[in-house]
Amino acid sequence: MEYSQLQLVDRGEVLTVYFKQSSIIDQLVINKIGDELSEVALEAAGNSKLLLNFQTVKFMASAMLGKLLQLHKRCKNDKIKLKMCGIPPEIMEVFKITQLHKVFDIQKDEPTAIESFGKRGFFK
Q1: DSSP code of residue 99
Q2: Domains of the chain and any CATH numbers
Q3: pTM value surpassing 0.85
Q4: % of the chain at pLDDT higher than 70
């Protein structure tokens, strides 16, 4: 499936999502990304591992956090492991202020995140 706001790369077990926009502040764009993330969750059900890579994102409105929380809930319900990586320091600050860094599994970069999917045991 082709997405206008997201780019997907299927790495076998892990479905990686990249954002096409560097600035996610327009409400119409945020709504479109939310819709596309819902579709991505359906696609990720086969992989059971979903990685959102924020490396291209420079600005993100707080309204986008709601879409990410919706995705988190859906992934939890569908038994999909959701991780995030490549979050710039400015955006990471928002995750920390809102305490969402404790809700989401946030990794430093893509290789670290992909490796962390494979880790088993007490400290997933």
Answers
A1: T
A2: 6-116 (3.30.750.24)
A3: yes
A4: 96
